[in-house]
Structure formats: C-alpha cells, structure tokens
Give the backbone structure.
Amino acid sequence: MQRDQPRSSLERQIEENLRKVYQKTVEEEVPDRFADLLRKLKEQDGAK
Amino acid sequence: MSPSDDSKIADPRDEIVSHLPAMRAFALSLCRDGSVADDLVQDAIVKAWKNIEKFNAGTNMRAWLFTILRNTFYSNRRKAKREVADVDGQMAATLSQKPDHDGRMALSDFEVGFSKLTSEQREALMLVGAMGFSYEEAAETCEVAVGTIKSRVNRGRLRLIELLGLSEDEELELTDKSTMAVVNGSFPVKRHIA
C-alpha cells in the first residue's frame, strides 16, 4: 500500500527534519549497559 | 526451551542487539530525556527477552520490540500520572522564533516543536516520517487502526507547522521564492550532524 507523499514543501521539510532527529540518535554509539544487560540475560538462561 | 548447547538453532533474541539504535531513537521520541529513554529501552529488552516465545519468527522484530517499548512507556506514564503534570496535554507557549528568511527551519527549533506534540503524534511521525514504516506497520506497532495513525501523522504535521510559525501564506511565499532551490537539491539533506 502506497504511502501518502508529503504534499507541500513544508511537509517535505518536516519529514527531512524527522529523519535528521532520528538519524542523530541512531548514529550514536550504543551505551555499554545494553551489551552488559544482554550478556546477563543470556547468563541467567544458561544457569537455569 | 532454551537449547544453550545447540548453537545451530537460531535464537531470535540474538537479533535484539541489531535493533538497539532504533529502539533508543524511538524511545527518545517518546520520552525526550536520554536517560529515561535508555531506561525504557532496558525495560523493553528485559520484557522482550522473557517473552520471546510470543514473537512470531519471520515477522518484523523491530515492530514487535517497538510495541513492547511503547506499551512500557504508556504503562509507566499511567502509573506516574498522579505525580507528574500532563506535559503532553498542555502546549507550552508557542515558539516565538520565525524560520530563517529562506524558510529553512533550524533543527533545534524543529526539535523543540516536535517535543511539544503529543506522544501519540510523535511516535506516529517518527515511525512513518523518519523510519519509513507504512501506515499499516505503524498501526500494528501502536495497536490502533490505520486511520488513527494517518490522523495522528496529519495532526502532528499541522501542529508542527503551527508551532514553528509557518503559515499557509508563507508556504505560498516559500513556493515562489525558494521551492526551486529545494527542488534543485540545494536543500541541505546530506549535511552531516557533527
């Protein structure tokens, strides 16, 4: 199903800015706490 | 259930790590505070890990993780409702700053405007506008009807236009003066954020 295209230049600018906001976080390095968390979860499973 | 000695069976949970950047970005669009957002991601990961049997292999794991994340967010918010003022419901004073003369919005203004939308509008705009989810995928992720997502996206856009002080008149003006520049590609799309 096709998505509505942004109709005006304002809407295009909004989409562009949304992508920038998103991109800014996505490009950040993921903090170590998440790798630690996944490792702990895995260990807990292994210990069962 | 967990064949830790049989590494040949792929564990869908191994895929979670690849969705972390997107989860953090989605969480940030919901909570607007980095450390709260990361706590939310952490809670969502734990829930996803423990409920992995509810994930249908072969379906969109990112959407599934987002659903868990947003459900956690809304359930936390319901719990905190009594302590915290409903910031989403009350719009702070509109931005006084007009866009630059060329009609370009500065990203910081945009982010301030975005933060004033309701969380429902923010997540809909983020999914559809930034992450390329179809309306159907976004609807499924947010567990609402497709029409609801469409309306949230549209209202969010309109509200942003209002908050950023962009009017229909200016839009026409913008079309006259600088649409060609935008169309011709001088729109700073590729510029990297340091």
Remarks:
- The first helix of chain B runs from residue 20 to 31.
- Confidence is low (pLDDT under 50) at residues 1-7, 88-98, 171-194 of chain B.
